[in-house]
Amino acid sequence: MNISQAWPHYKIQEIKSILDVRAVFAGETNFNLNWVFISTSGVHGSTTTLDELEAAWDLQEDHNDFLGHHITILIVHPRLVVMRYGEIEISREDIPWLRDLVAKTLDAVPLTQAGNLPPAGV
Questions:
Q1: Would you say the C-alpha torsion 87, 39, 31, 10 has a positive or negative sign?
Q2: At CA 87, angle to CA 53 and CA 68, rounded to 5?
Q3: Is 41 helix (H, G, I), strand (E, B) or coil?
Q4: Confidence of residue 68 (pLDDT cuts 50, 70, 90)
Q5: Are strands 11-14 and 70-77 parallel, antiparallel or unpaired?
Q6: Buried b vs exposed e over 12-44: b needs ≥16 C-beta within 10 Å?
Q7: pLDDT for 10
Q8: Is the pLDDT of residue 23 over 60?
Q9: Is the pLDDT of residue 120 over 60?
C-alpha cells in the first residue's frame, strides 16, 4: 500500500515552478510548520546552489547556460508529514526571497527540536 495515498495528510507532491513555492509561503508563514531546503539533489535535480546561480548571472550570458537557472527545492511540512519537491527555474530576483526562506527554516528547525537535542557541551 502506498502511504502517500492512504491518508490525506501523508503526501509527496511535485513542485513545478517558483509560483508553487510562493503559494506555499504566501502571507503569514509559520516556519515551525513549513521548512524549505535548496540544492538537495537526489533523483529530482542537482546540487546547484543560489551562490552558484548568482555567480553565473554575473558572467556573460553565453557562459552560464550550463546551469539553466534551475535549483532543486524540498519543502517539508513536518506536522502534516507532507513533502514537496522539484527542480524549478528561478530568476535572479527570486534569490533574496529564497535565501530568506532558508534562513527562517534554519532558525525554526532547532526550535522545534529543542527538547530532543543533546545537552550543551556533549
A1: positive
A2: 40
A3: coil
A4: low
A5: unpaired
A6: eeebeebebbeeebeeeeebeebbbbbbeeeee
A7: 72
A8: yes
A9: yes
Amino acid, single-letter form, for residue 117: L
Q: CA torsion, points 63, 67, 68, 69, in degrees to nearest 10?
A: -100
Q: What is the pLDDT of residue 22?
A: 92
Query: CA 120, CA 83: separation in Å to the nearest integer?
Result: 31
**What is the chain's alpha carbon radius of gyration, rounded to the nearest angstrom?**
16
Closest CA to 75 of 18, 114, 113: 18
pLDDT in tens, 50-64: 999 888 887 755 554
Strand partners, 53: none
- Interatomic CA distance for residues 83 and 116, integer angstroms: 22
DSSP 109: H
C-alpha cell at 49: 546552489
Distance, CA of 103 to CA of 45 (rounded, Å): 21
